[in-house]
Design brief:
The chain is an alpha/beta fold and 463 residues long. Helices cover 37% and strands 19% of the residues.
Length: 463
């Protein structure tokens, strides 16, 4: 970050990463200073492939203020978050022109955020990513639509959830799971699309064998999925570009072969849907701490948005030596703190040797076993994650209307789940008492953790 952009030290330092500087505190300090200085508006309009537009309004220093240089890193981190939360192929930047020019240069083919430029443009929305500079008054009006998701429990259904460490499937009759299976796999290391096809079909056929008939199939998967097409997903990172079309259409192919309605959405959306269905209340932000960080959101009205909610790539830490995401090349992103990537990268600091020649799922179980045995280093890992989660939630509250936050995923198993929630609540109570009274951070019960995702997924299609 630029030296002029101040990074306040948190009141609760993660024990294994005391250099951690949360986005939530830095942004609050910046906005407060800009407000005191009589700041000017910055409006960002994010346009998606269907023409829908999200607006985000904030405040920055005037161009002639002696802290105006701080506008650039602030605006860049805000845009980075918005791109992965809401998605866009075109961004309208309304405010000081220096900010618009900086963002246009940064999110360009030869800019520092080339990964985001290419991902949002070519891969997700199949358009050339564009930054347009305008006045705050000329940013297009918001055109954000929401829609109902799932909640169809009638009939004989199959629900599945594809993660990077395991795949789950359930056979569901009238909303009750009569069979569930969890199989460890490592899809990211596979370069043959037929592997993924065979594994998914095997899961579906196993569940189908437990049902008198199959009326509908619903699924969730890590990645960006639009109209049942896999635009980008970490599960398929090993697939060569010249065969990616086989992956992109894998679910439409299976739907045709099975001959029943099939819907698949991002796993974060199903996480939030499962929470909304079990809590019978909204809004719900679901966060799955698994091989990566998955996010999903159900609005106060009980609907979903057209947003991406890919919080794995959204920054939550701003310090200059924050860990680097190996895919995007960016620092301080959510997955580095709120997924199994965090225990893996902190294991050495915690005094835990990871076993060689085993799957990532087995590595995580190894660290979790140490946690169950009371290993001080393992407890420090989950305390570090829990504090990061608390500050991340305060940051997310700048972009979502929050009430219920549901935490689940492999990292929440056993003692880890309670440690994460307790430490996150401690951060909110200590640093953000205004949010602590509003946000309810919770874990699903053990049964919901195991089958709730696939049952919610099964409810996606209407018969």
């Amino acid at each position: 970050m630029n030296d002029v952009f101040q990074l306040p030290e948190p009141g609760l330092l993660p024990p294994l990463e005391p250099e951690f500087r949360p986005a939530a505190l830095a942004n609050r300090a910046f906005r407060s200073a800009a407000q005191d200085a009589g700041g000017v508006p910055l409006v960002l309009g994010l346009e998606r492939g269907d023409g829908s537009i999200s607006r985000y309004e904030t405040i920055v220093f005037a161009e002639n203020h002696d802290r105006a240089a701080a506008n650039l890193p602030y605006a860049e981190r805000i845009l980075k978050f918005l791109l992965w939360q809401r998605g866009a192929w075109r961004v309208h930047v309304g405010g000081p022109e220096s900010i618009g020019h900086f963002l246009k240069q940064t999110y360009a083919f030869e800019g520092d955020r080339f990964f985001d430029y290419k991902f949002m443009g070519d891969q997700v929305y199949e358009k050339t990513f564009t930054v347009e500079i305008c006045s705050a008054d000329n940013v297009p009006a918001e055109r954000d639509a929401t829609q109902p998701l799932g909640r169809h429990l009638d009939g004989c259904r199959i629900g599945f959830d594809l993660g990077a460490s395991d795949r789950k499937v359930s056979a569901v009759i009238d909303g009750e799971a009569i069979f569930s299976e969890e199989v460890v796999w490592e899809p990211r290391k596979q370069n043959d699309p037929d592997y993924h096809y065979r594994e998914i079909r095997r899961a579906l056929e196993t569940a189908a064998s437990k049902l008198p008939r199959v009326d509908a199939i619903g699924g969730s998967s890590a990645g960006v999925l639009i109209n049942n097409r896999v635009m980008v997903a970490s599960l398929f990172r090993g697939i060569p570009a010249d065969r990616y079309d086989e992956v992109r259409s894998i679910f439409t192919r299976i739907r045709e072969e099975m001959g029943v309605p099939l819907e698949i959405v991002n796993d974060g959306e199903v996480t939030a849907l499962a929470g909304s269905m079990s809590l019978e209340d909204n809004p719900v932000l679901g966060i799955a701490l698994g091989s990566s960080e998955a996010g999903g959101y159900v609005t106060p009205e009980g609907n979903i948005t057209g947003w991406l909610n890919e919080l794995a790539f959204a920054p939550i830490a701003y310090h200059a030596d924050a860990p680097v995401d190996e895919w995007s090349g960016d620092r301080g992103t959510g997955a580095l703190y709120l997924s199994q990537q965090c225990p893996f990268r902190l294991a050495d600091k915690a005094g835990i040797a990871l076993p060689d020649g085993v799957t990532d799922a087995e590595k995580l179980k190894h660290i979790q076993a140490a946690l169950e045995e009371g290993h001080a280093g393992a407890e420090a890992i989950w305390t570090t994650m829990g504090y990061a989660l608390g500050y991340a939630l305060a940051h997310y509250a700048d972009f979502y209307t929050l009430k219920h936050v549901l935490i689940l995923g492999r990292c929440t198993s056993g003692r880890g789940g309670d440690l994460l929630v307790d430490r996150a609540r401690e951060v909110l109570t200590t640093e953000f008492p205004d949010l602590a009274d509003i946000i309810k951070v919770q874990l699903p019960d053990e049964r919901a953790r195991r089958v709730g995702q696939s049952i919610a997924a099964a409810s996606l299609p209407a018969i």
